[in-house]
Specification:
The protein is mainly beta and 339 residues long. The chain has one helix and 27 strands. It has a domain at 254-339. Helix content is 6%, strand content 53%. Strands 11, 12, 13, 14, 15 and 16 form a six-stranded mixed β-sheet that branches.
Amino acid sequence: MMKKILSLLLLLLCSHMFARDLAPEITELWGGDKYCSFTSIIKFQGKFYVSFREGEGHVFGPDGEARGKIRILQSKDGKKWKSVYLGEKEGYDLRDPKLSITPDGRLMVIMGGSIYRNKELQGQQPHVCFSSDGVNFSELQRIVIDDQLRNSDWIWRVTWHDGVGYGVDYGTDNGTRFLRLMSTTDGLHFRTITDLDVPGFPNETTIRFTQDGRMAMMVRRDDADALGYWAVSEAPYTQWSWKKMEMRLGGQDFLFYGDNIIASTRSHYIPSRCKTVILKGKENGRFEEVMVLPSGGDTSYPGLLIEGKELWVSYYSTHASSMAKVYLAKIPLKALGIE
């Protein structure tokens, strides 16, 4: 009888230790009296960086003005963080700062710039800045698309591959919604590769590349059934066959890891109680939910980074406060069923 009790206790102890080893570590990175949202994460020159928008509200502050600023945090070890950048531009609501590393080794920050008058959107003009050391950043510059300045563009994220940066521009041209694949070699000047035939008010789009150089694309839609779109294309990335996904998307990011795709997005399973979730999928576009992060309300816009045997996820949420805060989740890959 005593042996059975000891065996049971040992089994319970091992199960507890195993569960503890698989539990995500959640840290609040930034928040307080500002509304902090729309994150990105990257490792640059051996240090970690998290970017996000900082404002008085999701869009407008109590005075009815939209004055989003871009803040970037830096950490040497992923535990202690400090602010190294706070960027703003008069007359613009800066949003969705996304981090990447240019072929010449600079940290690049691309962001949307919304212009409002009396709470009415007057235009969207993407901006960019760069840093060679992760501390000193260049002045914000307005991005030039097809050698002209336009008034309704949003290049939501840039992914570099073989010396070329790729992003998807969305907006409205003469009352018609557009989605266009763009490329750049300097991060400042972009040209159109092809129009993307995605219906249903397409917008936020993340691009990643397979090991053999094919481009994968995940597109958010906000009209009709609002389900996300997924596709993979070979170079020169002008022919696309779209597959409708089984879920809505919001602020989505994804990356390839071996034969798996790890993704994160806003879950609308309970529309009034949105969550930020982790998904696992395959190249055929089929995904399953594998984890729900502590989140709720206004939440999502994750950034993903593989660090050792962990998935690091930056995201924002209002589950603990009416003012959105930025969080960092460190998740053992084993907890996602990935070795």
